[in-house]
């Protein structure tokens, strides 16, 4: 009998020990650092359990865990019709954070599901209020509008929407094909425009090059014509100077020959040929040492004006003409000496033959002018006669 009583006592002690251990385990709540827990006793909300070890009434208490970190909610792909009647599909990601665990426990049942469903409806509403091109291009505007629509109801739940990101917005396949055709046509149009602009620029550059080439060619031809004209003018002047000098020398020589014949006579009155008197008047300064005047005025030779001199380049041949004048001056001094000898009655045998003098002058002039025309004695006689 005693053994039976002892066995019963041991059993009761064991049961009490088990109950005490279970009570202790039920009364201790360990809360992690990133969460909070809502405590209810007999179904009544009591408080929020902070991170660490918390003691609660055993066997009659319930706790509900709330993660206080930022959480990610995937919004399933949604179909919507845009304002211009184009079907599109889109999905998004919502980042939320529990700011008030009490509200999240008391104001909403399963706050994650509630936020996800609200984000789906808001996404469809925002897409339906926009044009197709806007849904494809204005991604940031869509995100901002969805977040703004979610802020007000989630604040009442103690939830803060930190960010909303629309991942994809895809139009229907028919719309995609139409957009691809439109893009292809736009690229072809731009390519044709660029090609046309390139051809136009090439044509302009070619025309400009042809224009510059024609201008340069015309300038070259003009310069060539000017140089050729200057060369012809110089040649003409030289020929005229040569002919004039040869004609005057021929007249002077013939006149000196006549003077020689007259000087051999006994008469003291001399009749001078008109050509010789004209030349004596022209070269009076060389023959008599003084300028010859006609009617009280000096005889002046005609000069080229500045434009003509510049055009034919007379200044460039001044040296050649000066040499011709020096030669003529030397010949006139020699003839003056011969004429003086005739007047004084000296022997005329020392006077040179006019034809020889003309031939010598022609040879000297030809050497000085590098290939000038050599007038013959007959030509000199003809010019004297004329």
TrEMBL record:
Tell me the membrane topology, using the record's own terms: Single-pass membrane protein
Q: Where is this region: Disordered?
A: 339-386
Please provide an example of a Pfam family that matches this protein in its UniProt record.
Band_7
Location (main, coarse) = membrane
Superkingdom field: Archaea
Cellular location of this protein? Membrane
In terms of InterPro entries, this protein maps to: Band7/mec-2_domain, Band_7, Band_7/SPFH_dom_sf, Stomatin_HflK_fam
* Compositional bias segments (type: Acidic residues): 376-386
Q: What keyword terms does UniProt attach to this protein?
A: Membrane, Transmembrane, Transmembrane helix
Band domain spans which residues? 26-183
**Any one GO cellular component localisation term in the record:** side of membrane
Where are its TM segments located?
A: none
* SMART domains named among the record's database cross-references: PHB
Q: Which PANTHER family match?
A: STOMATIN-LIKE PROTEIN 2, MITOCHONDRIAL
Q: Which family does it belong to?
A: Belongs to the band 7/mec-2 family.
Name the record gives this protein? Band 7 domain-containing protein
